[in-house]
Amino acid sequence: MTEQTYTLEQYPEQLAVVRFGPGAAIPPWAESSSIFSVTATATETSVVCAARNVPTKARHERSFTAFAVKGPSTSA
């Protein structure tokens, strides 16, 4: 078995998790980030995006950091 090496690369932006009601439209300010993610359930829609873009009145939590795993990939 060959040992594989992976590294972590930190994304440059501080991130926030913003909570919306179920089925909410994603506001344009949420999409201008180096990393952007939407998770939707029956009870809420959550967005991870750049903290600098989030309006102060939005229901959110700040100061998250994301990392990318860099290294070999395998085919399934």
TrEMBL record:
Residue ranges of every copy of the A9CJY8-like N-terminal domain listed in the record: 14-56
Name of the protein this chain belongs to: A9CJY8-like N-terminal domain-containing protein
Upper taxonomic lineage: Bacteria, Bacillati, Actinomycetota, Actinomycetes, Propionibacteriales
